Amino acid sequence: MFDLSFLEPERKTLKIKKSGDTILETAIANQFPLYHLCGGNARCTTCRVFVSDGLSSLSERNEREKTIADRKGWPKEIRLSCQTEIYGNVDVQRIIRDEEDLKTITSETKNSKTGEECYAAILFLDIKGFTSFTESSLAYDVVFVLNRFFQEMSEPILNNGGFIDKFIGDGILAYFFLDKTKIQSSELSLEEAKKQMFVQALRACFRMFDQLQKFNSYVKERFHHEFEIRLGLHAGQVIYGDIGHSDHKSQTVLGDTVNVASRLEALNKKTGTRFLISDEIYQYISDRIQIDKKIITRLRGKSEKMAVYSVLGFKEKDKILELQRSLELALRLNPNLAHDFYVHFLETKPEFQKFFQNTNMETQAKKLLAMFGRTIERFGNVNQIHTELKQLGKMHEEMGINVTDLAEIAPSLLFALEKSLGERFQSEWKPIWEETLGSLVRLMALK
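User: That's the sequence. What structure does it adopt?
Assistant: Structure tokens below.
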């Protein structure tokens, strides 16, 4: 019959009574200590093991184990002992070996990530000049300004499909990762998916520099100070999971890729640059970006030299970035853009006036601006706005407005934009806006 061996630290080999017994059943029959707090009913994860050898000799994950494994993001080598049947010789290692391990595992929340590996783009941001600001400002002002800064800088990351890992002093660690599930469900190749992810990350970075200009206007007016930011962007395999004390854990990314991104950000100070990317990213999107210079360097802790690139922007105009920048400029030049839209819309489409008879149009205009601005900013991550747009379409239908009629708003919005921008309206913006407004209406009509 088969052997089940536990490798920790010395091999302990157990005899399996019959083919098809589970790992947990075999451990119990041999009086080998293997935690199973739920009684072996797949309602906890304390009996999980790491399979070192013999994975092909185990049963496939059943539905109960698969649900837990998918939720936790387990690799194929992590198995739930109470659900895994044995059909050959297998070597495993317990994850939970003592009371301290048990304390750690029982502190995990329902959606805790217990450790997985994925490909990600890692972004580090640091503020230049913040120390001098702290030395000359009140403690309250320092915290207030820093929170305002983090709010402004985080939005482009979140709006373009990224995630905030943590705020480190006056810096930010963020990441963009490849979602294997979405790749499998789409027609994108791995290379195309990486390119798409890098473009999203770059767009977020360029938008952060836009946000910095607004932020500096605010800080200069109130505190007579300005800031600069330095960014480092690198990509590769990372480890992702919940790290920390059993009562104070947070999801974080770990690994050499994270270290390199951090050192790229720090290298800006030495090279007089403000945004450096690694060759790993450059080789995928070299045709899309404009670089200032190529730098050959040896990063701290690395034995070999590597190429890094100082990035200025996209070579050709990025549609989503143009949408965001043109709307932002229009609103700055004309805060009454939404009012102009409603005036034009109701003049050209008087049949819609009945829907607004009891509406405070000033309040309605403010709501439109907030919704519209938020939607365009998040257009770099369309999945994020699907639900909101469908709800918006449903709300209009409840008002008696057919969703298909919403296509009528496009000409009036374009009118308001062109009027607001005046001579600064660029001809290439018109087809971009027409395509975008058409997409928004189609998303609102989805059931």
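The chain has a mean pLDDT of 86.
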